[in-house]
Amino acid sequence: MATPSGLIRALQRGTLGQNMVMDRIFSGIQPTGVPHLGNYLGAIQNWVNLQEECSSVLYSIMDMHSLTMPKDPAVLRQNILDTTAAILACGIDPKKCFFFRQSLHLPLDLPAAQYLQQVIDMVPEHAELAWILGCLTNVPRLLRLPQWKMKRACQNNEGTVGLLTYPVLQAADILLYKSTHVPVGEDQVLHLELAQDIAQHFNKKYGEFFPVPKAILSTTKKIKSLRDPTVKMSKSDPQKLATVNIADSPDEIVLKFRKAVTDFTSEVTYDPASRPGVSNLVSIHAAVTGLSIKEVLHQSAGLDTAHYKIVVAESVIQKFAPIRNEIKKLQEDTSYLIKVLEDGAEKAKELAAPIYQEVRRLVGFQ
Asked: Which residues are catalytic, by number?
């Protein structure tokens, strides 16, 4: 993994162009509880680097997006707190960025029975701007997005309106703060392209107002399932051994890597097309140690895959040990977690309010 300054230089040479100036970065994560290895290596690690390099950075717990798949209110509330604890434990510093919940106004100390109804009843700037932008968005465009097709299948082909339109809410999340750059994974590129098109459509109709946000693509290889290395690692994977959570115990991590699917060749090589299982282990090893693929292969020369699995497991354990301890500590201080989110929401709202008021003026609401 590149150092923070190296990361930014690499982005400037690649996706973002030679003369890019990072004005404002926005990114978010759904509250699914403690993140997994793929979340950390693909997104959160980059978040930590970017907060060190950039002066205006916003990271959000996307609790409104989480309602696209049914959630028990009490579970959602706890997931928000656990995700917050994990993000802070990984190194996100509220003094260096705006760290807040997307719904902004909703207190976390509501009784569970009231939580979902309060989410439905509230109308914060994110949701209001999403409605305005939705009125500029073509339905066939949303129907073509692969995430709609995939997630609709998970709901027995009866996907909700929220599931269809959440990419418009994503666009609102980004544009509400006039964000110029968005860290994304490969599976979110099409959604960012939608946000870019919506910004351009708005500007054409109402005058130049929103920056057209650019992508910051992760330099880390996509982390795959340990049980099926043809698909990405996911918390929703029904196979318990497929996903490594960053708060897993050392014994759990060793077991999951010991059971990782590889092949019948014992040598450690990197060839994602023909040896996806072993290559996934190499990618993980490189990412958690900061070594290159070439350096990892050099260090692993002579090891068979069975022994190599343990080497990778130990590297992951070493990487996450301090994070795991910090998560436990933070989870015991709910009042602190709530205060971090409330303070972040206050700062985010101060930034968003004048932007949204100008949107209201432009479209004719005032």
From this structure: 151, 232, 235
